Amino acid sequence: MTRWLGVDSSTDALSLVLGQGELTNNFSDSKVIASQFNKENKQHGQSLVASVQALLAEVSWTVADIEAVVVGIGPGSYTGLRIGVTFAKVWATSLAVPLYEVSSLALQISSAPIAPVIISLMDARRLSAYIGLYSHNPINNRLENLQADCHGDFKEWLQSETVSQILNDTSQVLIVGHDTESFIQVFQEIYSKIELDTVTTEEALPHVERVFNLSMVGQLNRCTDPHTLAPNYAHATLAEQNWAQDHQRRVASRAENEAFIDHYKTTN
């Protein structure tokens, strides 16, 4: 069975897992061998390599034993994502092993209670957030995306046409996000008639060992070219914003960037 390493560094917490089993089916034979979740040391750049080495030593595995890598690509912390995704890309390309990507917001809710509509939140300051909108299919017990993960003003997002239509058609919503009480208050002010459940403890952070929960089937994607994998920042970086302003240009979306890369690869 495949031995794999999972990494998520999208928040202040660093989540690592060593797993065993196939990543291309219903995860029926997958299991956690060892995991680590560290919220104390927020300097992922300093702790990531040493933490992985310690986890490997814990189960007497070596670098050569890892046959695949899974990485949470965000959205979330710019610096954290850059560190985690770069680490995963270097590992996968240098050892020529498959690289899989997964939404950090999906990881965050993969063990949450079942609800018809689930909002996965990460605080991005000043009541802006990284937001994922999902549903939990009761038939196959899988998470389904209702909207692409995004970044924005939470109040404006709640009142947008697409989101308000979805929320007005349901009677129950679950919000999952660590320390998101202020966002919950905003939701209740706008949608006071909707039954709201919440998870705001550390369980509401991305734990990469949850990647093979049954609910995550369909959320894990293999990268065809690990070199081109980029974090999903969900919004332009400050450098990109400044460049666009200086050149009076619009910042391309992630989908547009991926389409350009696909076009470049087919024409060269």
From TrEMBL:
InterPro entries recorded: ATPase_NBD, Gcp-like_dom, T6A_TsaB
Gene Ontology CC terms: cytosol
Residue stretches making up the Gcp-like domain: 41-220
The organism's place on the tree of life at top rank: Bacteria
A single GO BP: tRNA threonylcarbamoyladenosine modification
Pfam families per the UniProt record, alphabetical: TsaD (PF00814)
PANTHER family: TRNA N6-ADENOSINE THREONYLCARBAMOYLTRANSFERASE, TRNA THREONYLCARBAMOYLADENOSINE BIOSYNTHESIS PROTEIN TSAB
Record's protein name: Universal bacterial protein YeaZ
Lineage of source species: Bacteria, Bacillati, Bacillota, Bacilli, Lactobacillales
Gene that this polypeptide is encoded by: yeaZ
